[in-house]
Design brief:
Shape: elongated
Structural class: mainly alpha
Strand content: under 5%
Helix content: over 70%
Order of helices and strands: HHHHHHHHHHHHHHHHHHHHHEEHHHH
């Protein structure tokens, strides 16, 4: 065994000498007898129990190396001997005395050994100590962030059981790509909640967008919005607002657009914010348009669309007040001239909204297939029964026809008339039973069916 160690030592020595000579220009004087004696002393010192005798042997070996002008190479050889024997503490001591060019590589080797040993241990203080040592020596060569990444990679390679530890080390390393990779792995395995949690740990815009999209695709919009909010993912909010609009949930959509506009403004994207306002105006979402133009400090447009929104709510007095403040005497006069018609339409609008409130609401339940949510079949049946009731068909249709008749009493064809028309066209029974342009009967009263009065 000693003979084998001797051969290995001489091999390592020859490499060290070559490296040293090239770097320093030194000329070692190799004496085979002294070399053999030094290796024998090192071999005996490694297994010696007495510290005094061990140190004496190592002192003699280093003296032999010094005589051969190989002090640093000799220190490395001694370090290798301790390393091979599993004595990391003494290996570090002797490597530190070796050539600087080799020192960092040798300390890295020490760190890797501590790490391999740690990974074979059960959880506990001893394992923590080994990991700490691994990080200490790996950091000598690579720096602390990279050392933590190396340790994290080892845990990552262990598979899902090692992911929690890998995440912890990746966090210290600032290695967000590694954390994202783990989140992607959880997602691929179907553990979506864990994937979302880890995306949150990564904390990048891309990570929050991925988590948000994951919940969005499952129909869990509230959770999706939370991740979009954390990542400032405007596209996610826009997507959600669009879905709300399609579902006719305009007030909820306006809340989302309000968040979008605040985010755009905070980023200095004023033109993008104006585009949202223009889109709201185009879609006749005057309440939102007023709010957005106010944030854009365009008070004229903000007041105009506020007045429009009030008319759309049939808040006649408030709309008149705003028009008066704006100096729109023409529209103030039009309201005054048509106050009787507007008042009657206001009452019919109230009746129609009350009738709509009586319609059984559709509750949502989890889709058994796992694809988001769906309407509760029991609620669907109740709605069908409501609309099939002849009394409800009569009440809704008669109210709509009264609206159409009263509408013919307008004395001017201007913004007031147009806005009131837009208000009533929100109600689907109005759109079906009356002509959308003239508000004259589109379906004769005797031919009305339950399908015509569905809100």
């Amino acid at each position: 065994m000693k003979h084998i160690k001797l051969i290995l030592s001489i091999f390592v020595l020859s490499i060290s000498i070559l490296s040293f000579s090239q770097k320093k220009g030194a000329e070692p004087v190799i004496d085979p007898k002294k070399m053999a004696e030094a290796n024998t002393l090192i071999s005996k010192a490694i297994s010696e129990k007495s510290s005094e005798k061990k140190n004496d042997m190592l002192r003699k070996a280093t003296e032999l190396f010094r005589e051969m002008k190989m002090s640093k190479e000799g220190a490395t050889i001694i370090g290798d001997a301790f390393y091979a024997n599993g004595d990391m503490k003494n290996a570090v001591k002797w490597y530190s005395k070796g050539d600087k060019a080799d020192k960092l590589d040798n300390l890295e080797k020490i760190g890797e050994t501590y790490l391999e040993n740690a990974l074979e241990m059960e959880e506990g203080k001893e394992k923590e100590k080994e990991i700490k040592n691994a990080l200490k020596f790996l950091s000598k060569k690579h720096g602390a962030p990279e050392a933590n990444r190396i340790v994290g990679n080892k845990y990552f390679d262990m598979g899902e059981s090692g992911y929690p530890q890998a995440i912890s080390y990746f966090q210290v390393a600032g290695y967000k790509e590694g954390i994202m990779l783990i989140a992607d792995k959880y997602k691929s395995s179907g553990n979506l909640d864990k994937a979302a949690e880890v995306y949150g740990v990564a904390g990048t815009r891309e990570a929050f967008e991925k988590a948000g999209n994951m919940y969005y695709d499952r129909g869990q919009y509230i959770k999706a919005m939370e991740f979009y909010r954390q990542g400032g993912v405007i596209e996610g909010y826009m997507k959600y607002a669009s879905e709300l609009k399609k579902a006719g949930k305009i007030p909820q959509a306006n809340i989302v657009y309000n968040i979008i506009s605040d985010t755009l403004k905070s980023r200095g994207k004023i033109e993008d914010m104006r585009d949202v306002a223009v889109e709201a105006e185009r879609e006749k979402n005057y309440e939102l348009a007023s709010l957005l133009y106010n944030k854009l400090d365009d008070q004229d447009l903000s007041k105009k669309y506020y007045a429009y929104s009030q008319l759309m709510k049939m808040e006649i007095v408030e709309a008149r007040k705003v028009f008066q403040d704006m100096g729109r005497d023409d529209l103030v006069s039009s309201i005054d001239n048509n106050i009787s018609t507007l008042t009657n339409l206001q009452q019919y609008d109230l009746v129609l909204r009350e009738l709509e409130k009586n319609v059984p609401k559709l509750g949502e339940i989890e889709d058994p297939s796992g694809k988001g949510v769906k309407y509760d079949p029991r609620d669907i049946k109740l709605r069908e029964q409501f609309y099939a009731n002849p009394m409800n068909v009569k009440s809704i249709s008669e109210t709509v026809y009264k609206i159409g008749k009263e509408f013919q009493g307008f004395k001017e064809d201007n913004d007031i008339k147009t806005l009131v028309k837009e208000r009533f066209l929100i109600h689907k029974p109005v759109k079906r039973l009356l002509n959308p342009e003239t508000f004259k009967n589109n379906i004769e009263p005797a031919k009305v069916t339950s399908a015509d009065i569905v809100f």
